[in-house]
């Protein structure tokens, strides 16, 4: 039996990487998807791929910094399927990087607006709808950066993603009594466009790879399977978790 049969799910940041892989996996497990990201052509291609495979997906392009967009994704889910069960707030950006003493206020603000505020706005409207359904689950994409690891030059990224952990815990405590579960995944290095941007030389790639106990980085598909676990009833007693999916990076010292 499919683990998400007839469940309705929103995925942001679905046009590439973890979001793309998760959309394909959740669709195979029976979820009806509403796909969000800024890149309309990529979103439409993903939706078409899911539909051709016998799944259900509709795309709506927009910017997660816009509260109207967050509301629109929920309204689309309800207008198409009558409910919302799962939300994967995955959209994010590396943002301005470099020495923190040279980081612009605008760069700082923009990174937090996408990674933290955008996720909050999404959850605000998603949870509001889930309460009408009798419950649901919300998942955020945080990171091991700023939690179990620190790298120079990415202060805004680390702060914004760390903020998601506090948001996760606050929402889990607030809405747990109403059967809404809220969790965050904290991936280690994942082979995505963002990873390749941050690690653009063989030396950097080797260094980051060796931080992990498994001595490799994750594929987006591996992270997607963790999202599936949190979205399904397999994790029915899991909420408020900051779940490391880091290949042992947090415990490796060799």
Give your account of this protein's structure:
The protein has 254 residues and is an alpha/beta fold. It is built from 8 helices and 7 strands, in the order βαβαβαβαβαβαααβ. The chain has a single domain (8-190, 219-247), classed as Rossmann fold (3-Layer(aba) Sandwich). Helices cover 46% and strands 15% of the residues. Strands 3-2-1-4-5-6-7 form a 7-stranded parallel beta sheet, with helices on both faces. Helix 1 packs across helix 8 (220-231), helix 3 (67-81) runs parallel beside helix 4 (105-133) and helix 4 runs parallel beside helix 5 (155-175). It is globular and about 50 Å long. The termini are far apart. The model has no long low-confidence stretch (mean pLDDT 95).
In brief, what are we looking at here?
This protein has 254 residues and is of the alpha/beta class. The chain has helices at residues 17-28, 40-52, 67-81, 105-133, 155-175, 193-198, 202-210, 220-231, and strands at residues 8-12, 32-37, 56-61, 86-89, 136-141, 180-187, 242-245.
Sequence-ordered SSE layout with sheet pairings:
Elements: E1 8-12, H1 17-28, E2 32-37, H2 40-52, E3 56-61, H3 67-81, E4 86-89, H4 105-133, E5 136-141, H5 155-175, E6 180-187, H6 193-198, H7 202-210, H8 220-231, E7 242-245
Parallel strand pairs: 1-2, 1-4, 2-3, 4-5, 5-6, 6-7
Helix pairs in contact: 1-8, 3-4, 4-5
Which key phrases capture this entry?
alpha/beta; Rossmann fold; seven-stranded parallel beta sheet; 8 helices
